[in-house]
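Before a colleague's protein record goes any further, I have to sign it off. What it holds is a sequence and that sequence's fold in token form. Would you go through it and say whether the fold makes sense for this chain? The record follows directly below this note.
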Amino acid sequence: MELLYALLKLLSEEQTRQLKQACDKSTKAELRLLLYISNNKESDSIATAKKLKLSATTFNKSQSLAKTYLLQFIKQSIQTPYDEVNILQKLSLQGDMNVALNFYRELERSYETKQLWSLLDALYIEGFRISQISGKPGLIEQVAEKRNVNITRLQKYVNCYGKIMVEMLAVERFEERKELPAKELAKLEGIYKEAVEIGHHVLIHNALNILYNANARYFNAPEKTWAIVEKITKNREEYKAIMNPLTFSITKITLINFLSTHDGFGDPEKYVRDFESTVEDGGILARVTFYYALIGYYLTNKELSKVEQYLKLLEQLEDTSKFKQYKSIVLAVKSFLEGNLKEFNAHFKAFYLHPTHTQFPDMECVLRMIELIVIRRTKDLLLFDSRLQALRVYMSRNLNKTRYAEEYELLNYIAHPEAAKNKQVFKKLKNSYYRNIRLLVEVLDI
């Protein structure tokens, strides 16, 4: 029933009311099923079948029919980008040519302004139909010329978009323990230049987004990464009137994520109110990401009451993202800063109970460094040395030395704080761009 529950979540309150009304008086098993699960969102398959007095065979068949019904119900309220072109077609087929031609020109201006080039192609096809039916002199030649120009840039768009999708997946899949080849970064920069030449805001945004991820994850170059964030913001402001609401929201998340993890570039709190006004456009994942970014910021600033505030807001959301396990990291660090080592150990262990912990090697490194600090304070040098060597092995396997150079330097200091070279490095790390490094340095400097 997982799919049925997921589909029901897509409905607005009014749609849910209409669905229940349609199902309320029906004797069909599939509609009785939909009515029941829309009112009982925690019920599992066995309990539901038992409550509705359905055999296993009937229940499985009812689920399939309920899915078909629900999909059709949802489709009735879904609009497609091509609806306006379809309306234009109906106008021309019923002979309202003056109205159709005026509407055609209105749509052409709108699609051109919004850079909806694929819709323009569909519109020009209808333009040919209008030209043929109306017999207006010169119109068909004008439409053909404009379509040829549009097809050329649309083809460039499609080719560039394909490259972006391939490279996006490549960057996401690339193992963080390895160095990102210089030729790969050069390729990404080349794609960005191509996107700028084509001049479509979606291509520019996506190309910049890959560059941001590549630089943030594989290189220790915050100033360069910040320059990319500024370009993303500039692109958003230039095209905000036509940008997709989801993309618009993502650009703001990128800005807040960067400011929450890096010092010296601005205060993320400055943008909270602005982001709150549009966060819903990004869906629940955008809000979850937003909350975790601020939690990380307040945690490294040791503003624990603010951390608690946003943790409570998170509890009101149904967080099914990979960040759910990240909460254990937050709670562990928070407990350590509060001096509650019992709670720190409990959350430290909880972090490893879910396989998604492998997706946070940088934060796992922070946790394990804090563990080393705790062990050193107990003066259990044998255990300290054992955990130290284990962390060295872990970092060599999971964190590349280019992006995580400061983590390697900090670990050397934790191992041998008395060494003159390490003392100099430690002094330098106090001015790190990375907020998590600054937090660890502050803890060690007590």
Summary: The longest helix spans residues 139-173. The radius of gyration is 28 Å.
